[in-house]
Amino acid sequence: xxxxxxxxxALTAVxxxxxxxxxxxxxxxxxxxxxxxxxxxxxxxxxxGIMIVDLPYIIKDKPVSNILEALGYLPxxxxxxxxxxxxxxxDVTIILNGELTNMPVQNLYQLxxxxxxxxxxxxxxxxxxxxxxxxxxxxxxxxxxxxxxxDGLQGQIRAGYNQAHYGSYGGGLAATYAVKDWTFDLNYxxxxxxxxxxxxxxxxxxxxxxxxxIEDNMRRISKSLNNTIYAAATFKRFRLTYNGQITSSAxxxxxxxxxxxxxxxxxxxxxxxxxxxxxxxxxxxxGLTVGGDYTxxxxxxxxxxxxxxxxxxxxxxxxDINRWHIYLDQQHQLGKWQLNYGAEYQRADDSSSQKSxxxxxxSGTTAEDVADAYIGFQxxxxxxxxxxxxxxxxxxxxxxxxxxxxxxxxxxxYYKRPTSIxxxxxxxxxxxPSYWELRNGTxxxxxxxxxxxxxxxxxxxxxxxxxSYIFKQKYVATLxxxxxDKATVQLPYQSPDELSLVYQxxxxxxxxxxxxxxxxxxxxxxxxxxxxxxxxxxxxxxADRFHDIRFDNKKWIFYGALNNSFxxxxxxxxxxxxxxxxxxxxIQGHAGLSGIWKADAGVKWQFGKKRSCELDLQANDxxxxxxxxxxxxxxxQDYRMKVRDMSRNLKLTFIWRxxxxxxxxxxxxxxxxxxxxx
Length: 678
Description:
By secondary structure, the protein is mainly beta. The protein has a 27-stranded antiparallel beta sheet that branches. β24 (442-444) and β25 form a beta hairpin. The longest helix has 14 residues, at 9-22. It is globular, with a radius of gyration of 27 Å.
């Protein structure tokens, strides 16, 4: 790591006087010019089972321009084509400034992509989030800077171009302003994107005692215009925020050639796809916090399938979701103990429908209610232990089922010296399926392949534990275990009753993972700054009834990465980066996935007055090897899919910061359960 050189003049004088009084003869005739103490800035701190990471320091020389890209450099975090994962956790929720905004995950990622690095203060990684955050399981809390009236109007303007198979481009404005007791934040992003995907499939289908090989070569093209808006106004202890994403001019097309002929599937959206969220929050001086938010999501998609120029069928999918959420939290300081308790309630009405050739496959409103109450404790002891623990009771109800859940959480940290920190986290989370998956709908990819809904799909419980050792506030080793009871999986299945390939999300018996993740940063002066990551784990997935077959698949899997950045001089405005990553062959259900690897490179150039301008050039997956081949050869199922996506891309970003720009943004997001394309 880059070292910080500090000259302690006062310490030099004290040391000199002490030396003269004790061994005067030994220093007589000598003159001490200065004492240079080389100190390394701590990257990671620990408290209450939480890792506090100085991410701005870690990525200062990296060619990243937004918070989404920066999160990939956190210890244990993997940024897989824009999807954030955390080693040792089945899933991770991103929140901002300790607050959850119920935003779909893709909307959240889009917002983080438009949020500048300069707003970032620090990041907290929690394998077990305290119940007061209203999030179960692992959390990444992005803490952003808060503006003051002395800062004036600050912000940055960004413009970028991304060349993959097709070109995409966009820009954004981020600004903040504070006056007296008021603080205002604005973040706007506009992007025109066009994507391309390619996959080859070979389905050796057993039907009526005979094998039929069905080959297919499919290309998918989609394009859209995305508007992302975040606005917030804070007055003293009251805050009002708006998060929105409007996707217009959206359309897609899949082109299929193979054994059954040539097919075209056209997807058009009748009007923009809308996501809107309005939230209010008030924090009282006596520890009470009360808040609520309202979310609307609307999508209407029309699908038309053609065989050559002949029309085959059409489907109209529509989804409107209205969701209300309220919560109340209370905190008391009882001596050295902190007591937390609270409750929340969420109501969602999913009005969805699917029509095909004038016939209604389903239509109606599904209501979902989730209510919970919790109590938690937090304490720090002088002898080195700090912990937080909570217990939550949750009630879940929808049109199909209802159940009670008990959700305990524990996070603890122990250290006598900052150079040696031990953390333990235990958590339980319930994972819910998307709203669209619970519908009894059918979406045709072509006459052979289709996607089915599953009203019988159940939420599943995931139990997780992590034991982390942090050495010298930068090296991290995490031993972890996960057990997901009734975990879900969606894989292709060759139907024995018809010549049809079915995709449907189904509950397995369980999925278990046990592994060890190592994160080791090192440096050679200021010239070479690197981080090596190694994650080795055993994964097992078992199902006694996956359609009409069973499987018990397990495998040892390795993930490795090496991130490097280089500078020519300590104050050089130009830095280079070269990153490598590899995943060994892995599994998904009864399928095997081939190993994949990639190499990325980039350059970052800061220039202008006070380096207010920045130019970033990134080449991702230079050799286009970050796409796997899926193989299924089990219980009569014989299927192979080779993904040939254009994951290689070249991205150029220009940034101009005005008035010193250094403040905050608040917002968080979860789209995982919205959308008709599941």
